Amino acid sequence: MSRGIGWATAGNQRHACWGYSGRNRAGRFLGKPFPWQLLAVLLALMVGVACSNSAPAAEVEPAPTVAPTEAPTAATAPEIVAEPVSAEAKPPLPTATNVPPPPATAVPEPTAMPTKAPAEPSAAPMLQLPNVADTVERVRGAVLSIVAESIVLDRFGNRRSNFGSGTGVIFSRDGLALTNNHVIEGATNIIVTMDDGSQLEAELVGADALADLAVLRIPGTFETFLPLNRDVNLRVGEWVIAIGNALALPGGPTVTVGVVSALGRTIGGSGGSPLYDLIQTDTVINPGNSGGPLISLGGNLVGINTAVLRGGGGGSGRATIEGIGFAINMETAVLVSDQLITDGRVKWAWMGVFLADLIPEMAAELGLPIREGVVIQNVLRGGPSDQAGIRPGDIILSMDGNKVATVTDLTRLLRTKFSVGLEIEVALFREGSTETLDLVLGERPRR
Q1: Does 290 participate in catalysis according to the annotation?
Q2: Helices H, strands E: what count in the chain?
Q3: Residues 6+ apart with CB under 8 A from 2
């Protein structure tokens, strides 16, 4: 069957229509007229349903079922539940309305906030160096240059004079002065030179070789002196000044400055006996400084210069020793000077033993249950310790309730706390057990 296009006219208007060929005329369907109106209605309904299905509509939350027959599918996003709408209802189209634009609001200009200028960094405080000159000016009138004359025999047995030099310091208005024992030991004549250049002959009040101190008396009254103060709170690192007759150079005393390097040092003395509780300092101490004052920046007397370590260098193969000097502390100076002024000598409490520190490594090697104490190396026959029953090999742990860990601790007790004739309790370790003995202290023999 062929299809063609025909043109039909209605009045003076021409309309295009689709039709069939002459053998099957249009408008004939099973011998009846074709229902064109019904077809148009059906087409209109079909177009409306299609449009309603293409528009997105909110889904209605289904009522839960008791026994679902299909496996639920995982939802990728939460559903929005809305009121159901009819599938056939057409939503009204929005009507365009002229919405007036919001009125323009003037934005205020930003107000400049006052800003605080950053504070200028404070300048770092400058290092304040010690004012040594003023201190020296105040105290140098109390410093003495000492020349001690002694009579010695030469190799042929002839008597001749020998001179030694040192330094001293006046500590009282009536002319009492302190110096080292080794400066004036064996002297027959002692001449002191004052700061103003005047020379005076000094009198020996008393001397003690064990402490290496001596007290002299200078005739006259003196306005400048450095009093002895037992309670000196000296600290390591504190500035100190040494003044002395170094090398007996003409033109006045020599001044050197340093710090306190250490406290409580022990070294061998000039006579072979150890010197205890010394101040170590790096101030330069030369021959002739012995007996001179060690002074704080405040002008206070804090020590008596007594020794210096030297050696090494010059191809000897030993390390060069520099900056290690020693001074006697004021506790010892006050103790000794008081007894020398009163009695002319010092009475030291004495045990009559030879001592050594207990080394922790030695104690561990011997299997001892203690790690510190003082070992009795030898006991003098007939001495106080021999009479008390103390034997070589004993280890002293305490004396009269005072713990003794080193020889320095024991010596300090004998010098500062115990006196001649005092009976004390000595706790010691012997053959694996601790014992307590009573000891009556004697007086140390004078050399």
Answers
A1: yes
A2: 7, 25
A3: 21
Catalytic hit among 290, 296, 385, 398: 290
182 is catalytic: yes
Active site residue 212: yes
Report the C-alpha gap between 266 and 274 in whole angstroms. 7
Tens-digit pLDDT profile for residues 379-424: 999 999 999 999 999 999 999 999 999 998 998 899 889 999 999 9
* Residue 228 tokens, joined: 């002895």
The total number of residues written for the chain in this structure? 447
Average pLDDT along the chain, 447 residues, taken 10 residues at a time: 42 42 45 62 61 47 42 41 40 47 51 56 63 90 93 86 92 96 93 91 94 95 92 92 85 88 82 82 88 94 90 63 87 94 92 90 84 92 94 93 91 90 94 92 85
- The alpha carbon dihedral of 318, 323, 328, 331 has a sign of negative
User: What's the CA gap between 98 and 40, in Å, rounded?
Assistant: 39
> How remote is the C-alpha of 39 from its chain's centroid?
106
Three-class secondary structure assignment of 350-416: ECCEEEEECCHHHHHHCCCCCCCCEEEEEECCCCHHHHHCCCCCCEEEEECCEECCCHHHHHHHHHH
* 0.85 surpassed by pTM: no
Q: Which position among 145, 172, 182, 398 bears the catalytic label? A: 182
Which among 212, 296, 385, 409 is annotated as catalytic?
212
What gap in Å lies between CA 162 and CA 88, rounded to an integer?
A: 142
Structural domains in the chain, CATH included, are 3-50 (no CATH), 133-343 (2.40.10.120), 349-443 (2.30.42.10)
What tokens were used for 37? 């109106």
